[in-house]
## 1
Amino acid sequence: MNEKDLIELWNEKRRQIISAQMPSVVALAVITVMAMLGYFDGEYTYGKSFAALFLVSVGALSVVNQLAVIREGQMIVEDLQAVDNPSALATKIAASGSYLVYTRALMIIFSLALLLVLVLLIL
C-alpha cells in the first residue's frame, strides 16, 4: 500500500472507533430513561437485571470491537513507519503508536472499573 492508502485506512479506523462507541451511548440513554421512569425502584426488579445484562453485553461488544480497531491501527502505524520519504501527516500518524497503546490500556481499565461499579450498584 502507498502512503495515501495507509492514511485513508487510518482515518477509516478512527471513524470505526467512534462508531463503535455509539451502541454504548444508546444503551446508557435507554438505562437513563428506564431509571427516570422508575423501573429500578424497589428492592429487586427485573428492570435492574435487564439493565445490568444489557449494559454488560453492549459494553463488552463495543470494547472488543474498539480493541480490534486499535490493533489494526497499530499495524497501519507500523506500515507508515516503513514508508520512504513520508509526508508530515504520515510522520505524525506513524509517531502515534504509543497513543494507541495508552488508549487500549485505558479502555481496559475503564471497562473493568465500570463493570465493578455496576456490580456494586446492583448488590
## 2
Amino acid sequence: MEPTRVLFVCLGNICRSPMAEGIFRKLIKERGLENAFEVDSAGTGPWHAGEPMDPRTETVLKRHGAYFEHRARQIRPEDFQHYDLILAADREVERDLVRLAGPFRDKVHLITEPWGQGEINDPWEGDLWLFEQTYLELADLVEKWLERLWPENDEAGRAP
C-alpha cells in the first residue's frame, strides 16, 4: 500500500511548517505508522532555503520530543502532484499554494480546517513563549488531521 503523503507549508519553512512536520513525525512514530505516511515541509518563498529551522523552533521541538534534522526548502511544482495533502499555515500561504497548484488545487487545505476557521500566526517576530503557543496550536491541529487520515476505528486502516 502506498503511503499517504502530507506536506506542511508556511512562508519560509523555518517555523510553523517544520514544527507541524515534527509533531506529525512524532505522532506517527508513537502509533507505529511510519510506513503509512510520508511527511515533509516547505515554504512558499526562497528566503531561508538550505538553512536549518529557527533556533526557537528547534528548542520547542526538542522540549516536546518532536525534533528532527531539517533544512528549509521552497515548494516545487512537482510537490503538487506528489503529495496527497498540502496543508497551509495561513490564508496568504493557502492563496499562494492554490495559485501555484494548477489542477492539484483540491489538495491544498488550510491547516486550521478542523477548527472551522482561523490561522496559525507566524511566531517569527516573537519570543520563545510565542513559539510554544504555536506548538500547542499545531499539536492540536496535526492530531486532528491524523485522526482524519487514519481513523482508529477504520477496519481497513485508511481513510476513504
